[in-house]
Amino acid sequence: MKYQNYDKVLSDRQIFWHFYKKSTADVIGLIVLFLILTVIFVIPYFVNMDPYTQDITKRLLPPSWVDGGELRHFLGTDEFGRDFLSRLLHGGANTISYAFLATISAAVAGIALGIMTGIDRHHVRSSLVRHSFDIIFAAPSILIVFVVVSILSPTLPHTALAIAISLLPRFIHTTYNAVKHEIVKDYIKANNLDGSSYLRLTMECIVPNILSVITINFWEAFAVAVLDISAIGYLGLGAQAPEPEWGSMLISGMDLIYIGNSKAIIPGIAIGITIAAISQVGHGIGRVLTMGEKKWL
Amino acid sequence: MLKFIARRILILLFVFFVLTIILFWMHIRLTEFDAERLVRDYLYFTGSIVRGNFGISTGSKLPVIYELKMYLPSTLELIFFSFVLSFAVGTVTGIAAGLNHHSVFLKGVTAVLRLTTSFPVFWLGQMMITIFAVELKLVPTSGNISLFCEVPLVTGSIFIDSLLTMDPENIKSMLNHLVLPVIVLSFMPATQFYLLARRASFTISEMDFIRMAISRGQSQFFLARKHIFLNIIPSILPKIKIILCNLFSATILVEVVFEWPGTGIWISTAVEHSDNAVLETAIFVLAIIFLLTNTLIDIMGEVFFPEKRRINLNI
Amino acid sequence: MALIEIKNLSISLKTPNGLVPICKNLDFSVNEGEIVGLIGTSGAGKTLICKAIAGIHSRDLEISFDRYRFDNIDITGKDLPQRRKFLSERVAIMLQNGTRSLDPLMTIREQMTENLPNSARPRKLWKRFFWKKREIDILLHKVGFKDTKAILNAYPGELSDVQCQKVNIAMALGRKPRLLIADDPVSTMTALSQLQILRLIDSLNQNNHVSVIYVSNDLGQIARLMDRINMIYYGEIVEQGPTEQILKNPHHPFTKIMLDAIPDMGAGSRRKSFFKAPGGDHPDFQHPPVGCPLGSRCPCADRECNIKPPQTRVKNGFYCCHFPLNT
Question: What number is the average pLDDT over the span B39-51?
Fold first, then answer.
């Protein structure tokens, strides 16, 4: 009786968007995220941006709208004479893409492990596997990065690996809990009695129902990954000079604060806005996907 | 309950064992690798670590354990103060926000808080230094005590040491230096506690026993104090472990920003100069501290809030 | 003598799609010393009405009424906190699940001590020492506990449902209310335990002159307890009248349906009834139907039932139906 007034059936994607756009904050977050990704990844293909050329004669130029700035260097130059805007964009590309890489690898491995330990009937074995990852869970991410970076050399891909390792346990834990919740439901038992194999059970019954948990987790982890990558860059253990990266740009600009230069603040603001947009989108997706459950907001 | 504690301790020992293996593997990667004497090397390594013999730091030529006693308590005091501050402020405001859940003002405040905690803590620290230390000159810019103050090294924690000297100049300077790092560190955990407490107290305030208490005419303040606060804690406890973890990561960054002499700077310089002994020791000690804290939190949760006395919220 | 009189009570739910009306223009009254029943299917709004009367509804609900008189004192003009304070001294409420109505982290002793109103403090000085302890013991004895020490030291999670409900009644007794609102307190228990609680409520009514609003899902043994019965369907009172009249001579088809649903333990043969149990549930509150809410589920429905809502007729109570029975 409820839908008898509708003359067409909406697809899943349309329903999702219909509920997503009810919150303006989430839509703003999505627009900002989209803008950031476009600017960072699409524009350098069309405009020639060079973050590496040093020109000592043009050090520390202010942005072009201030006295003394040049139009060619839109946001000015850093202390070595490199164009700041292109450094910002390339650095953003580095930060975001390595953070995404880390999150995806942690997600794939963590979800697989979580499902395997969740389905496993042998209680002690799954408990053992989970608790051996507990040590990564207990240790702060920075510590794990220290371990990895001291064994391998400090470069950006190694940092991404370390962050993937530190994100792994959270995926394992939440996937395990979600699978445990699903497995005790009666339709799984019915399917099992009908004779489906474990693989089929997983693929057709469990995975579609824990997809919401996985997605929400992924966005939270992505925000954390961006924060961690820039934090490691800040400590000097990530991208090495002259590779641009938002965190390392921030710390090389730290001395500039005392002379009131804007170069020191801008990478930090960029990091903050990106993380805020990612968290807001993640929050909105979480709100829409858990809409049927007991509402609390 | 004893069974639970025994099980947790067993898991702790198992994880400790895995930790020693990881450390040994790290040690081998950094120094030499001798296939024949592997097991003997492992036992010797583990034995010396457990006994506290961590080796000599190649940077300062001192035994690592002396450096540990200098640097670790400083970090621990920062973590302690910011945890206490963020817990107090976060849970109280969170409970109040949960009870007044339908207020539009609070919804806006929550959105703004989520936005501001997206900014990285090291950037925030720099901004705070610029505003409060450089422009307004209210607090000093770096360090944990003024260079003019003489504080002998007793415990390594500047708070306890300067209190032990009983010199008001020292204490004033120490408090001055402590304020800004602790406040910067507390932003993120306070927001996390606020969000958790808000969600939990809203869920609890719809429950039957709170409705009964309201029908008896209790005021909101009384409800919050007596009924809601203690009932929230079992749901928050698992998240405290994660919050502490993030707090420690943030502490390392904040120590670098504020030039606070703690484990952050210690480990960073050790990584840059490939000081292996320091690195292994630091990782070992910090991992042990975190494992112990996690186990302690789990055990305390089970002792004070056993199953039949807790409300299981689905946060 | 009317204890409570509410005229034109409307309850609406605030949803993201707007205000959804649940109860419209309800008139409700309870006389002194009376046990009034609110019977209906689940989801019809009985609990909401109870919470609205007691003032402890959640903030999602919009409540409005034309007149609310309690014991001849008009409290229509008061806003929610004042109303709650006024009602807290005079109204006691019992919710559905006994164990969940008690704080799980406090012992029963602490909760009952907190529950005693300050107005019960004895005047004479020598009676004031340890008055709370003695009062609690007296209350627990009244509800039938022999070993009060074990009960007092226990936590709510350790007691059974029946014991918790008895503790709730003891706490309600301690506040000396004028009105007790019992929101389906016994449906989670077996018949013997139900009898204990019902006897306690009955003795409250007879000995302490407490009026009771009793909400229930079925008519069963509870009907013998009540003096007057309101049948609620889809948020409206569809029939109201004295118990004997409703049980013997129902006017509204919904009442007949509920009566027929009572299992007949004594009858040997199958009961053939003209009214077979209708399927389905009451319509969704977001899409109210035109005409009578019982609509096509009613066995004696006709075209007129789907076109315009029924009128209220008064005869020994009132009922609203286009085609009432037994007139």
Answer: 79
Check residue C199 and give left, alpha or beta (phi > 0: left; psi -120 to 50: alpha): alpha
**C102 neighbourhood in chain B, CB within 8 Å:** 209, 212
Task: Say which range, A19-23, B286-290, C286-290, has the weakest mean pLDDT.
Answer: C286-290
CB neighbour burial string for B52-85, b if at least 16 within 10 angstroms, e if fewer: eebbebebeeebbbebbebbbbbbbbbbebbbeb
* Cβ atoms C233, C25 nearer than 8 A: no
Residue B224, domain extent = 71-309
Determine the distance from the C-alpha atom of residue A227 to the mean position of all C-alpha atoms in its chain, rounded to a whole number.
Answer: 8
* Shared domain check, B199 and B125: yes
| Domain presence at residue B140 | yes
**What is the tally of structural domains in chain B?**
2
What count of Cα atoms within 13 Å lies in the side-chain half-sphere of residue A43?
A: 16
Cβ contact, residue pair A2, C283, below 8 Å: no
Cβ distance of A235 and B268 shorter than 8 Å: yes
**Does a structural domain hold residue A228?**
yes
The overall average pLDDT reported for chain B is: 83
Interface test with A, best of B26, B249, B288 (most A CBs within 10 A): B249
CATH number of the domain at A144, please. Answer: 1.10.3720.10
Answer whether residue B59 is part of any domain.
Answer: no
Q: What is the domain count for chain A?
A: 1
- A141–B118 C-beta distance less than 8 A: no
CB within 8 Å of chain B, chain C residues 156-195 = 157-158, 168, 175
Residue A156's alpha-carbon distances to A141, A231, B202, in angstroms, are 15, 12, 43
Residues contacting B183, CB < 8 A, separation 6+: B85, B128
Please list every residue in chain A whose beta carbon sits closer than 8 Å to the beta carbon of residue C284: 1-2
pTM, 2 dp: 0.85
Residues B142 and B45 in one domain: no
Does the model's ipTM exceed the 0.85 cut? no
* Residues B256 and B146 reside in one and the same domain: yes
Burial class (CB in 10 A: 0-12, 13-18, 19+), B20: middle
Q: Is the pLDDT of residue B87 over 50?
A: yes
What average pLDDT does range A161-168 have in this prediction? 91
- Domain assignment of residue A47, yes or no: yes
- Judgement on whether residues B112 and B150 belong to the same structural domain of the protein: yes
Distance CA C230, CA C34 (A): 13
Q: Domain C2-226: which topology? A: Rossmann fold (3.40.50)
- Both B40 and B156 in one domain: the answer is no
Range of the domain at A271: 26-295
> How far is it, in rounded angstroms, from Cα B82 to Cα B249?
13
What backbone torsions phi and psi does residue A265 show, to the nearest 5 degrees?
Answer: -90, -35
- Domain regions of chain C by residue span: 2-226
Q: Report pLDDT for A67.
A: 67
- Tokens, residue A68: 């003394």
Q: Choose one of B10, B25, B53: the last residue of a domain.
A: B53
d(CA B296, CA B293): 5
For residues B225 and B91, state if they share a domain: yes
Model confidence at A297, in pLDDT bands (50, 70, 90)?
very low
- C44-80 in b/e form (b: 16+ CB < 10 A) is bbbbbbbbbbbbbbeeeeebebeebbbeeeeeeeeee
